[in-house]
Specification:
The protein is mainly alpha-helical and about 120 residues long. The protein is built from five helices and no strands.
Length: about 120
């Protein structure tokens, strides 16, 4: 479940990034985008720990696409806060497609390990 842990950490970074990048107070859309996206990413990652909803991390793809698009649509040169949106969106996109059980060998391998008496399965 390490990809979900990384998603929670990225969600926390999204939540504090308005303070790190000192978003102007009049840019309420950027503040709202950061906090809403942070909340959704953390909730989706944590809910995916529940076995019936283990696919929930895939909803992070929609949040990541929003962040990429939101940052991309800004006037050039893109301010650092929006660059952060794009970077985090791309990183979340990569994390969201990694299965939660990425470190566990496929069932066929596990059966072979057991059948052959090989350690590691």
């Amino acid at each position: 479940m390490w990809p979900r842990v990384v998603e929670v950490m990225l969600g926390c970074w999204i939540a504090v990034s308005p303070f790190v990048f000192r978003h102007p107070n009049d840019e309420w859309a950027l503040w709202a985008s950061d906090w809403i996206c942070a909340s959704l990413v953390v909730v989706f990652a944590l809910v995916s720990y529940w076995p019936p909803a283990r696919w929930m991390h895939l909803a992070t793809i929609a949040v990541a696409l929003w962040m990429i698009g939101f940052g991309w649509m800004q006037p050039r040169p893109v301010p650092p806060g929006y660059q952060n949106e794009i970077f985090l969106g791309l990183t979340l996109l990569m994390m969201a497609i990694i299965p939660s059980r990425a470190t566990i060998p496929p069932p066929g391998w596990s059966e072979w390990y057991k059948r052959e008496g090989v350690e590691g399965g």
